[in-house]
Amino acid sequence: MRRTRLLYLIIACISFITVSAKDYSTIFHYPLGIKVNDISYLDSATVVSLTYTGAPYSWIRLANSTYASDENSVRHHVIRTEGIQLGERLWIGDDGRVSFTLHFDPLPKGTKLFDIVEGDLLGGFYLYGIHKAGTKVRIPKADSMIFEKEVEASAFKPDSAFIRGCFKGYSRQTMPELWLVGYRSFQVDPFDMSQSPTILKVEPDGTFHCGFLVDSPKWTYLDNWSNRHLNFYIRPGDTLDIQIDNFGQWNETISYKSVSGNSCHGNLMRYNKEAIWERLIELRNAASLTAFDHGIETLSEEVDALFDYLSWKYQLNAWEVHLLKSDWTLTAMAEKADFMETKAFSIPMEHLMSLKASADSIKIKDLYDYSFLKSELWEDASIRITQAFDRSADIAKRHGILIPEYGDNLSADNSNAHEYSTFKVKDTLVQSLIDRITASTDSRYIEVAFMHPKYDKATGNYLSSLRNLTADFSESADIDFVAVIDEGQDENATTLFARRLSLYCPCVITLAHEDFLSVQASLRQISVPFSLTLTKDGGIFHWPLFLSPETSFRDSFRQLIKREKDNEIPKD
To answer: Do 12 and 128 fall within a single domain?
Structure first.
């Protein structure tokens, strides 16, 4: 009996040790499906076993630049793998799970907290603050207190800024030649030339140099129309060097250097917003506003812990932490307003009738309380620097919230009204297409969507919006919708006809494959390559009314019509 008890005790201890050794937590990680199963600290290597849970028959890929970062921020590279090959796709089976093991250069003895980061990729895998579950991780609270002089009006005086650098190993066969600087998609003024996109051209040797006007410090990015962004932070008068190695090859490294003085380019870029967006997308499916608020509160606690950790690990200063926290606050605010508007649109008409005597008098603002948008945060000039400012400010303005203006340049800019005008193109092929489009409709404004045979992310988002808005504005004499599609290289008449029907668009114009590519190449020099807004006389808006999101399109178009009525824009 005594031996039996001893055997049970030994088995229980072994079971406890096994569970304890394989139970690990992170301070924050992305994507949600990644989990640490086991860690072995050996003299020859640190071995980490992981499991990823995702959609069946999808795939994941880890960059060759994946590394582990110890408590002193020293990088330890992968020396061997099991179950996965770095830089290559790993397909997920029908059970939605894959397991693999990474062998890193050995971490220092006594390591209790470390990261796994997929190089400098934006949106890559990372696990911040891996530690054994049950152990207390003591991270000091980040200091985010800043002084007024750090955001005084002089910081918001416009000046030229320059970015320059090089894509090492650049090839025009694998990477676009033209990029957009500070690409915006929320509530831009289509008649405001100051908001027209700035084009950066990459030379054949991979070097680039671009100057543009900056009215305040900007936390922005380069966009190459393929869902790959390069973030950067720049101030009026600043010159920033950006060196990129192996971009798009899953082994990229990015370095930032401010020529004009000290700045926080590299540190700010460590904040990978993709992880937070993944949680926010889940919250959009909340059953009620109460459930959404609870989810935001829980997520805010996680985000605060992440910022504390980043501040401690990478020695972020108070200014950097302040920007991070302000960006999150604005993001959460905008997400809540979006959620409420979506819920308001989805309320069945029979429920609305019980709220109001007349369904025609119902307004979104009557259904929810948007007073939380009247935040003291708007008094903080520094929030204009954050990534989330434009979107959240647009939403607040939509609900009647006055956004303060800062700096002498802003008041001067307002007194100097923009010219409400359009422009014409010199490109013969583009002009020929515009003539065909304007001849197809009698409407005063025309929204044009360029649709690829295989929809990429941009035009794919436009497809459903094109269908919905075409139906909603079918009786309007103010605007019409036209789709321009690429005939493709191998499509027959039957498939092309089927694709035309799928657009539900009253007017569809097809272009030969080479002509379609030529038109888009020309448009990249003056606007975004997948959308145009035209006037009946063929004038092109300096910035199109984006079809997606539909709410933004409706608001922009209402503003346009209102300006006409206020005689700011001539009707002819």
So the answer is: yes
